[in-house]
Amino acid sequence: MTFIHYGGKFYRLVHPRPTVIIGTLCEDGRVNLMPASWNMPISEEPETIGVSVYKETFTYRCLKFHPYATINVPGPELLDLTYSLGSVSGKDVDKVKKFNVELVESEKINVPGMAKAIAIYETRIYNQIDVGECTLFVFEVLKSKVRDGITNQSGLDLRKTNLLLHGSGKIFHYVDKSMLSARELE
C-alpha cells in the first residue's frame, strides 16, 4: 500500500464530521446560534462534550460572558438553516430573528434550544483548553433530550432521522442507513 502527501487542509481527512449548533446567551441578551463540526463526546463520568470554537467568533465572546449553552443536533430538515447560521456572524445579525428560528425553553439552564433539533443537550462549561487559534470548550451535560420515536438501543434510528455531517463549505453528507456489525478477530 502506498501513501502520498496530502496537500489540502489536514482536517479534511477526518471529515465529514457530525454538526451541532451551539446556542449561547450573549451580553445584549440575544441568543446566538453557531454550527460547529469540530465536536466530540469527551467523558461519561462526568458526561461531557467538547466543541472547538475559534477565538475570533461572536460565539466565543458569548461563551466567555455566559457559561451555559445548548448543543442542538440538527437533522436533515435543518440543512439550509445550518449552513445559513454558519454564513453570518451573530455580531452583525440577530440570527434567531433573521432566520426565524423557533426556540424551546430549557429545563436546567436559561439558554433555549432549537425546537426543530432532533436532540438538545443543556450544558455548562466544565473546562476550557486554549489550543492555537481555538479554545476547546468542554461542556458538562446537565440534561439531554431527544425527539420522541427516533431512537433505538444503538442511539438514533437512522431509518427515522439522520445526522448532518459537514464536509466543507456548503457540502454536507448523511449517514448511510445500513448497519455493519464487526466480527471479532481471533
TrEMBL record:
SUPFAM superfamilies reported in the protein's UniProt record: FMN-binding split barrel
Keyword line: Flavoprotein
Entries under Pfam families matching the protein: Flavin_Reduct
One GO MF term: FMN binding
Cofactor(s) needed by this chain: FMN
Residue intervals of the Flavin reductase like domain: 12-153
Superkingdom of source: Archaea
Record field: transmembrane: none
Family of this protein: Belongs to the flavoredoxin family.
PANTHER family the record matches: FLAVOREDOXIN, FLAVOREDOXIN-RELATED-RELATED
Protein's recorded name: Flavin reductase like domain-containing protein
Organism (species): Sulfolobus acidocaldarius (strain ATCC 33909 / DSM 639 / JCM 8929 / NBRC 15157 / NCIMB 11770)
